[in-house]
Specification:
Layout (H helix, E strand, L loop, with lengths): L1 H27 L7 H17 L5 H23 L4 H21 L1 H4 L11 E3 L2 E3 L4 H23 L2 H11 L1 H6 L4 H27 L9 H14 L4 H20 L9 H17 L24
Antiparallel strand pairs: 1-2
């Protein structure tokens, strides 16, 4: 049971990284994107290919995974900016499926359905961080989550974050106030894709192999559930949502009911969570984080 708890915490961290990126796109800009699984897959395969085929160190593959994923975030962001709501969701979902099918059929690069095996373990200062000894890997992935949380939280409090929120509230009003809506939306996609690519690198190192079948659209649905459940526009909340969703996913194995409860039950449960949250608490468990106006807007006397 203790190993299961460590496993849940590790996967919570990996999916929390994707949820942080999803929160920037959906929670701050208000774009219904379902493409995190595609960026997740790109990050995983970049690390796998560079480390296995070219012998790169993990610490060199991570920035490359973030960079290449963000490039594809730019590619998907630019042509889909005119779309909204369901149409945007369908377009981004299609991108994720295109990525998975390319990985499944590009045998010379990705080894097709067989995937890439025997990925080298992470080494830090000569110390090997083995996924089989979960404590070391747990500390590593949560360091990544804390760094991502700090950076994205600071970003949300900056001019960029306020511009993204303005676009979500009223795109026309934001544009009339001089905000370049196109540029900020693209930046949201780029940053959300970059952090999902980092999550993919960690996933590849934890499993020590990658296969296309692990990156289905259900991954994107799970990430969206984490954001909705915790609270859109709140980075602490999406980390909580990631933990709850992962706990639900592994609960049958945790209590020894994996042979009784079918795997499809998780998909039904995720859908039920979304329906219940939309009806009873659409703002999520913790709700949107409230931000005060910047201090420089106030004089010493307290007048605006």
């Amino acid at each position: 049971m203790f190993n299961f708890i460590l496993l849940i915490l590790i996967y919570t961290a990996i999916f929390a990284l994707m949820a942080i990126g999803q929160n920037l796109i959906t929670g701050y800009v208000g774009l219904l994107s379902l493409t995190q699984a595609g960026f997740f897959a790109i990050g995983s395969y970049v690390t796998a290919i560079l480390s296995v085929t070219y012998g790169w160190n993990f610490w060199l593959t991570v920035p490359m995974a973030a960079l290449i994923s963000s490039f594809f975030g730019l590619l998907i962001g630019l042509p889909t900016l005119r779309l909204k709501g369901d149409y945007l969701a369908i377009a981004t979902l299609g991108f994720g499926e295109i990525v998975r099918n390319i990985l499944n059929n590009w045998d010379s690069l990705t080894n097709g359905p067989m995937g890439i095996q025997r990925i080298p373990m992470i080494s830090l200062f000569g110390i090997q961080i083995s996924p089989y000894k979960k404590w070391g890997f747990l500390v590593l992935v949560w360091i990544f989550v804390l760094v991502a949380y700090f950076l994205f939280d600071r970003l949300a409090k900056s001019r960029l974050g306020r511009a993204l929120e303005a676009i979500r509230e009223d795109e026309i009003a934001a544009s009339s106030m001089g905000i370049n809506v196109t540029r900020y939306k693209v930046w949201a996609f780029i940053l959300g894709a970059a952090v999902a690519g980092v999550a993919g690198s960690l996933q590849a190192e934890f499993i020590l192999s990658v296969t296309p079948g692990a990156f289905t659209f259900m991954v994107s649905i799970m990430v969206l559930c984490m954001v909705v459940l915790g609270g859109m526009g709140n980075f602490k909340a999406v980390i909580l949502g990631a933990f709850i969703i992962q706990f639900i996913s592994y609960f049958p194995q945790l209590v020894g009911l994996s042979n009784v409860i079918p795997p499809q039950f998780k998909q039904i449960l995720f859908g039920l969570i979304l329906v219940v949250m939309m009806i009873w608490r659409p703002q999520g468990i913790l709700g949107r984080e409230k931000r005060s106006a910047p201090r420089r807007l106030f004089r010493s006397g307290g007048d605006v």
